[in-house]
Design goal:
The complex is a heterodimer. By secondary structure, chain A is α+β, with helices and mostly antiparallel strands. Chain A contains five helices and eight strands, in the order αααααββββββββ. The chains are: A alpha+beta, B mainly alpha.
Chain lengths: ~210, ~200
């Protein structure tokens, strides 16, 4: 019965009062809400895939070429990674981003990043080693992954550094240290994601002049 | 997760218990995402902003004046989220200088909003992976007809010569696998590059 209700809600077939009651039930029951969200995402994903073409929904089975292509892609990726690792990475590269591990870190330069809708200015990162305070709603009981992305003009995204298992300092703050001197001028984004939780990441943009 | 009644959460937040605020966020966030996903037309940035804004409003209200009936905390949070979504839509419409038919449609029919600015790239990639894995062409077609064409189950079963039990079983298998794919794979922005191919 519950699954039927979920289907009706996602398809927009519930009346106004039913919709309100359903939503309030979701808010009071997080596990149920997650089930509903997966249904919403499945539908949204299908809509998105079908936007280009519906051919994938009607193709016949022919798994062998897929498997061969996948195996070749994996092999190529492994070779590329090993090559890049050996040739391009310096052996003792200083860290671009690090966790805030000492009280001294709190005395230096700092930058506050928050999601503010409608703002026209992008925060600018100062030179040197800067403590970045990311302001949002964080769950102190969970680990977060923080990735530093460089946003290229051609819309490519290059991940410069990633920190795993970061604990928020408080329910509204998560802090990291960034060495600004190692960053080229340009647009960057700190991508924060709750680990092992299947949620979307939050992006906090800034620029380095 | 243990369910913490709204009345108790309200009381603890009013008394300054920070862990109660975390519990409220953990408990309410998934439901708010459901409610707001439906009202933000697939705009992920807006969805995230509104979830956070709603939680901040609710927490600030509980820290201060509180609400009339603490047992109805979920209803209060839901109404706050709806109001913020409406205000955000109005603001976006005001900012437009020309007529935006997409926004008008989104406002008129929230159920169709996923067809608006669909930006759930992770879900799209998971659907592609799912479609590649489904053993029967019939199952793929069934998904298309159910989720994309919005056909009723009975009609799909009739036209595809399926029993309702077989239909539900295939659908439930697809849902389980979709969820597994999303949970197993840490999709990153780099995956955006492969979406266009």
């Amino acid at each position: 019965m519950k699954q039927e209700l979920i289907e009706q809600y996602v398809a927009g077939r519930l009346g106004e009062a039913e919709t309100q009651a359903f939503e309030e039930y979701c808010i009071a029951n997080p596990e149920f809400a997650r089930q509903v969200e997966y249904e919403q995402r499945l539908k949204a994903g299908i809509v998105q895939v079908a936007r280009g073409s519906t051919a994938e929904f009607v193709r016949s089975n022919n798994p062998l070429p897929w498997r061969l292509a996948a195996a070749a892609a994996v092999l190529l990726a492994v070779i590329s990674i090993v090559y890049a690792w050996n040739r391009l990475l310096p052996t003792h590269a200083p860290a671009i981003m690090a966790a805030v591990s000492a009280d001294d870190h709190r005395n230096g330069e700092s930058l506050r990043l928050a999601l503010v809708r409608g703002t026209e200015t992008t925060p600018a990162l100062q030179p040197g080693v800067v403590r970045i305070e990311i302001v949002g709603l964080f769950d102190p009981g969970f680990h977060y992954t923080v990735a530093l992305d460089r946003l290229e003009r051609n819309k490519n995204v290059e991940t410069m550094a990633t920190l795993y298992s970061q604990h928020p300092t408080s329910p509204t703050t998560l802090e990291v240290m960034v060495d600004s001197n190692q960053l080229r001028p340009g647009a960057y984004s700190l991508r924060v994601r709750k680990q092992a939780y299947g949620e979307d990441s939050l992006d906090f943009g800034f620029v380095k002049f | 997760m243990d369910f913490v009644p709204g009345g108790e959460l309200s009381r603890r937040i009013r008394e300054g218990d920070v862990s109660a605020e975390s519990e409220l966020i953990r408990q309410f966030e998934p439901g708010l995402r459901v409610l707001l996903r439906r009202r933000t037309g697939g705009d992920y940035g807006l969805l995230q902003d509104l979830v956070q804004e709603t939680l901040l409003v609710v927490i600030q209200r509980l820290r201060g004046a509180g609400i009339d009936d603490p047992q109805k905390l979920a209803a209060f949070a839901a109404q706050t989220a709806r109001n913020l979504a409406i205000a955000s839509l109005r603001k976006a419409e005001r900012q437009r200088t020309d007529v935006d038919s997409d926004a008008t449609e989104r406002n008129a029919d929230p159920a169709q909003s996923v067809e608006g600015i669909a930006a759930d790239v992770e879900a799209a990639l998971a659907v592609r992976a799912l479609l590649r894995e489904l053993p029967q062409p019939r199952d793929r077609l069934m998904l298309k007809r159910f989720y994309l064409d919005d056909h009723e189950k009975e009609i799909i079963c009739q036209e595809m010569d399926l029993t309702e039990a077989a239909f539900n079983q295939a659908l439930s298998r697809a849902r389980r696998r979709f969820r597994q794919i999303l949970e197993e794979r840490g999709f990153s922005k780099r995956d955006l590059l492969s979406l266009g191919t």
